[in-house]
Design goal:
globular; binds magnesium ion; Rossmann fold; 29% helix
Length: 174
Amino acid sequence: MVKEPAIFFDRDGTLIKTNIKNSKPIANNNVEKLSFFKDSYKVCKFLKKKYRLFIVTNQPDVGSKKIKKKDVISINNKIKNELKISKIYNCYCYKINCKFKKPNPGMITKAAKEFNIDLKKSYMIGDRWKDIVSGKKAKCKTILIKKSYSEVAKCKPDYIVENLGEILKIINYE
Ligand SMILES: [Mg+2]
């Protein structure tokens, strides 16, 4: 069976807006306040022509009981339906050493097994160094979306863009 290429997106600060506190992004898990970036629909619609779409997201506030899992799931369901994402992988752990938690590549490699994905032809896209490191460990190409909080020095992405829409100039989807 021929392997498919995929796009792995981070969730918060990549496809949906976050709150920023002390120069750090804070995940929004209130479905009423869910807000997509203006290019999220367009990017997903175009990339879907050639790639299977996934989200891989750390949600450690569930593990540490600051937020409820059901709130994460309701926001995920809305994103999945609106953007036509194949599957959203969550890591709820707040411990550092979980193999699924970014910067570890466990969520990406799990998706690759479940959906027969060709990781070398795939991209990991995110707004934080953890996203880029997880993508590199999984042998994907990586794109960092630059933010005021971007910790570029901690990673070497293959590409850096100013906003989500710019990834369509890098990834060939026709
Ligand atoms: Mg993020």
